[in-house]
Structure of dTDP-3-amino-3,6-dideoxy-alpha-D-galactopyranose transaminase:
Amino acid sequence: MINFLNLQQINQQYNEELIEACTRVINSGWYIGGSELAKFEQNFASFCGTKYAVGVANGLDALVLVFRAWKELGKLKDNDEVLVPANTYIASILAITANNLKPILIEPDVNTYNLDSGLIESQINDKTKAILAVHLYGQLADMPSIKAIANKHNLLILEDSAQAHGAKLDGIKAGNWGDAAGFSFYPGKNLGALGDAGAITTNDAELANVLIALRNYGSHEKYKNIYAGVNSRLDEIQAAMLNVKLKYLDKEILHRRTIAQAYLENIKNPLIKLPLQNKNAALYDQHVWHLFVIECEKRDELQKYLTEQGIQTLIHYPIPPHKQQAYKELNHLSFPITEGIHNQVLSLPIGPTLTFTEVQKIIESINEFI
Ligand SMILES: *Cc1c(COP(=O)(O)O)cnc(C)c1O
């Protein structure tokens, strides 16, 4: 069986270093808020090109806490509207509604799966205060246009960068385009911890300072609480794992790109729509291929066929947020492009330990699908 993503293999590549880092933390006797976290925050900010990175417990909290901090700073208030792509992962929407803000869903571009920037301005009114730009599947959203619109209408930009560590556009990385960005280090992400972890990047010192308190009960100083904060800390063990794995992220991205290139050049089946269809080559080396997503009208048959061939695939995502039971108030909405995407997408294996023999087998199997 070719696994969609072999986490065991991925982490075993760095076994010795991970065990050594783990041992170092165990022997330090210091498990929360220590030198491993400080080092990771520095390393990750430097990787993204931002002034600050603030470690938190997971990617959802990263997004939730940025909106929360903006409320504490008086930049947002209850019922303000946040523009967000309709086809995103549910976490983006949860971060908005968890803060009593209102998600305004916008259709994505059918070719990039990211926010269609041409549709943003018609949704802006007096209540619109922010754009949550999601870099879905590992490719940056159309940030130059989104930034121009945000500047014109005085909107905040939060990047959901959970799938886009290291992705670039015009030489600027994910996490350094908006006013702030949320990252996830869930084990299956391009930079994955060995458990849950997340971070926020920003160049805004004031925001970073509020976030540092919010993640720790709203406190900068022990037993002195400025905000009614939460417990959302990135612990020392996970920070130590991430310090090891961050060193190899660029190498792993290159491996993903080589596989993506092989898929793009060799999958030749008229039933399959490949990603980046209408995109020029210049964009190619900016994508970090968290997911390699193809489309097929007979998606369910294709998935079943590939399973029979010993190839595991996944669907990102089968149900869009506005059709989820959790969001009954959105169920009446209709987003045909988003719904079409959810009916047709299929994610192929593209992990950092996938071999070229396996890639060859996947290409051949897809080309033989009728
Ligand atoms: C994974 C993911 C998140 C949430 O990250 P967690 O660490 O699982 O909380 C948010 N947004 C997107 C787009 C994601 O893919």
Notes: The pocket of pyridoxal-5'-phosphate is lined by residues 58-60, 88-89, 91-92, 134, 160, 162-163, 184, 186, 196, 198 (CB under 6 Å). The CA atoms of residues 3 and 312 lie 5 Å apart. The mean pLDDT is 96. DSSP finds twelve helices and 14 strands in the chain.
